[in-house]
UniProtKB/TrEMBL annotation:
Gene3D superfamilies: Dihydroorotate dehydrogenase, electron transfer subunit, Nucleotide-binding domain of ferredoxin-NADP reductase (FNR) module, Translation factors. It comes from Methanosarcina mazei LYC. Residues 1-89 form the FAD-binding FR-type domain. Belongs to the PyrK family. [2Fe-2S] cluster binds at C211, C216, C219, C229. It holds the Pfam family NAD_binding_1. This is Probable dihydroorotate dehydrogenase B (NAD(+)), electron transfer subunit. Responsible for channeling the electrons from the oxidation of dihydroorotate from the FMN redox center in the PyrD type B subunit to the ultimate electron acceptor NAD(+). Heterotetramer of 2 PyrK and 2 PyrD type B subunits. Pathway: Pyrimidine metabolism; UMP biosynthesis via de novo pathway; orotate from (S)-dihydroorotate (NAD(+) route): step 1/1. One of its GO terms (molecular function) is electron transfer activity. The lineage of its organism: Archaea, Methanobacteriati, Methanobacteriota, Stenosarchaea group, Methanomicrobia. It comes from the Archaea.
Length: 259
């Protein structure tokens, strides 16, 4: 698939290190949780989750994202996709728990909105380093209960999302969707596993992609061999049992990199 040229129509600074880029194309058939390959000309092509059907929300962490932060309205980048498997939409009347950490709130926000539109009850646990780094808090609050945690205690519970989860009955939910830093997701995974609700959960993984369409195998996870770009990026909790989650990922050469 050749990249389409996406012109930036609006840029919103969500936090000191996170920006949302709106572009002049709508992926009407996107599944919440799917990703696009973003071609930053002259630098690299990197995967990013869609925060709406016409936006990506980007954290400045490396060369490609730093270059994106230099772009202005009217500039453009290339897009391929959407690709991969998104989150499973709930049935009407089901209870959904969203667990989002940092920029992981980006792919979970359209999922929360789609779940609410489907008639599900949506509750969210939203975590960040501090109040100024909370992402899309208003979008989640508009849909149902939103519980907040910050590392420094500047808003909500001081601590991590698992500190909020301790006060919730996670067994009462029909579906649990998780996305955030892998250390956070691994902690949530253990929490849900201990309470025997992994079969209700789905996790969105981030790995190094080359092709983005399941051909090259660069993003296969141990020990199942599942391809994050094709079989994921969203996996059920049971699929990730005994996997590399929270332990290591792989770099461009395939070497293990400790999480």
């Amino acid at each position: 698939m050749l990249p389409l040229n996406a012109t930036i129509t609006q840029i919103i600074e969500e936090s000191p290190l996170i920006r949302t880029f709106f572009f002049d194309h709508k992926f009407e058939d996107m599944e919440p949780g799917q990703f696009v390959m973003v071609w930053v000309r002259g630098v690299d092509e990197v995967p990013m989750g869609l925060s709406r059907n016409n936006s990506i929300t980007v954290q400045k962490v490396g060369e490609a994202t730093s270059k994106l932060f230099e772009l202005k309205e009217g500039d453009s980048f290339g897009l391929r996709g959407p690709f991969g498997k998104g989150f499973t939409l709930p049935a009407k009347g089901e209870k959904v728990l969203i667990i989002a950490g940092g920029v992981g709130a980006a792919p979970l926000s359209p999922y929360a909105e789609a779940a609410s539109a489907a008639g599900a009850e949506v509750n969210t646990v939203l975590g960040a380093r501090s109040e100024e780094h909370l992402l899309f808090e208003g979008r989640f609050e508009a849909l149902g209960n939103a519980y907040v945690s910050t590392d420094d205690g500047s808003k909500g519970v001081k601590g991590f999302v698992t500190d909020v989860l301790k006060n919730l009955d996670v067994t009462s939910y029909d579906r649990i969707a998780v996305c955030g830093p892998e250390i956070m997701m691994a902690s949530v995974f253990r929490f849900l596993e201990e309470r025997e609700v992994l079969e209700k959960s789905e996790f969105s993984l981030h790995r190094y992609f080359k092709c983005g369409i399941g051909v090259c195998g660069a993003c296969c996870i141990d020990s199942s061999g599942l391809r994050v770009c094709k079989d994921g990026p969203v996996f059920s909790g049971t699929q990730l049992t005994g996997s590399e989650l929270g332990k290591y990922s792989r770099d461009a050469s395939g070497r293990r990199v400790k999480i």
